[in-house]
Amino acid sequence: MKLRRIRPASLLPAALLAAFSLALASAVPAMAQDTDEVPYWASLTTDKANMRVGPGGSYQIVWVYQRKGLPLKVVRRLSGWRLVEDPDGTRGWLVSRFLSRERSAIVTGDDNVMMRARPDEGSQLLWQVEPGVTGWLGDCAQGWCRFAVGEREGPLREGWVPQDRLWGPGEP
């Protein structure tokens, strides 16, 4: 019986086919994760992100966000880009890797909001929070939301604030 030698060059098509199949199989789970229905809430994951007029790096930058945790409403998805709306109503495109599904909110209005120990107007006052402060959003019920201000890794100031003083809770 004559043994046939396999030459490395003859393995090339099979290796390419295997590599392509593996790449395709690993891409499917990544695409499957990108099935969130719009609109939905997101928060900024970085201290600096460029908002653009279109979904691509060649489009003009219209705004530079410099606030990690800023709540944003995602209104459209296109490949690795998201059309978002910020608390002021400005719309533009951000790279999706700068967004997280972790819920945040921003204090609205002209005066400080009172952060309380319980979801009750008569509850102990813990902190006064200025308009424009961003924080992490917890559960909301009966017009009150659990709200935490500070870095996730560090100490947080937590309490309850009236839901109508926040942009970010509720349905997007």
What does it look like?
The chain has one helix and 14 strands; from the N terminus they run αββββββββββββββ. The protein is mainly beta. It folds into two domains: 63 residues, SH3 type barrels; 63 residues, SH3 type barrels (Roll). A hairpin with an 8-residue loop joins β9 and β10. The longest helix has 25 residues. The chain is elongated, with a radius of gyration of 24 Å. The N terminus is likely disordered.
- Major sheet size, sense and barrel closure: 5 strands, antiparallel
What does the average pLDDT come to? 85
Query: Residue share in helices?
Result: 10-25%
Q: Can you tell me the number of structural domains? A: 2
Q: How many strand segments? A: 14
Within the largest sheet, what's the order of strands?
6-5-4-1-7
CATH fold-level label of the largest domain: SH3 type barrels
CATH superfamily of the largest domain: SH3 Domains
Beta-strand content? 35-45%
Order of helices and strands: HEEEEEEEEEEEEEE
CATH architecture of the largest domain: Roll
Distance between the termini: 73 Å
Shape: elongated
- Class from secondary-structure proportions: mainly beta
Radius of gyration: 24 Å
What's the level 1 CATH class of the largest domain? Mainly Beta
Keywords: Signal
Protein name: SH3b domain-containing protein
Signal peptide: 1-32
